[in-house]
Amino acid sequence: MKKILVLDDDETILEALEDALTCLNYEVKTVKEVKSLFPLLEAYKPHLLLLDFMLSNSNGGAICHQIKTAPTFHNLPVIMMSGYNDVNELSQKSGCNEFIKKPFDLMELDKKIRACLESNENAELMNGA
């Protein structure tokens, strides 16, 4: 079962995503605090991160950039989420693999998740990992 970690500062969104993704047969952990993210990445070892762009005390783009430049996590697929139209380009510059606008269709999200996971698996096979 593929593991997904979700970082969002909105408890309602975290609960909805956890329920929906669990129904789609993913193992899901959620995190609300940015300070808990990196220890949880180490401990949980997710296959994918769903990351909100606009967080109350931080910027999802900056967090994504940290992940993508960290030797331990640089291969982790990241899907950036936002309710704002104008952050798609910014999120792409941060190195995220995909962007999805809130509110989103669950089937569209699942399609993007599956594409990211498949792409990452193919890259690992090509690199001999």
**Annotated CATH topology:** Rossmann fold
Helix content: 40-55%
Give the helix/strand class. alpha/beta
Instruction: Please indicate the count of domains.
Output: 1
Number of strands: 5
Strand arrangement in the largest pleated sheet: 2-1-3-4-5
- Please, how many helices? 5
CATH first level: which class?
A: Alpha Beta
Could you give the order of the helices and strands?
Answer: EHEHEHEHEH
Notes on the structure:
- The chain is built from five helices and five strands.
- It is of the alpha/beta class.
- The model has no long low-confidence stretch (mean pLDDT 90).
- The chain is 45% helix and 19% strand.
- It has a five-stranded parallel β-sheet with strand order 2-1-3-4-5, with helices on both faces.
- The chain has one domain: Rossmann fold (3-Layer(aba) Sandwich), CATH 3.40.50.
- The chain has helices at residues 11-23, 37-44, 60-69, 88-93, 106-126; strands spanning 3-7, 27-31, 48-52, 78-82, 98-101.
Name the descriptors:
alpha/beta, five-stranded parallel beta sheet, globular, Rossmann fold, 5 helices
Write the layout of secondary structure elements.
Blueprint (H helix, E strand, L loop, with lengths): L2 E5 L3 H13 L3 E5 L5 H8 L3 E5 L7 H10 L8 E5 L5 H6 L4 E4 L4 H21 L3
Parallel strand pairs: 1-2, 1-3, 3-4, 4-5
Structure described in brief:
The protein has 129 residues and is of the alpha/beta class. It has helices at residues 11-23, 37-44, 60-69, 88-93, 106-126; strands at residues 3-7, 27-31, 48-52, 78-82, 98-101.
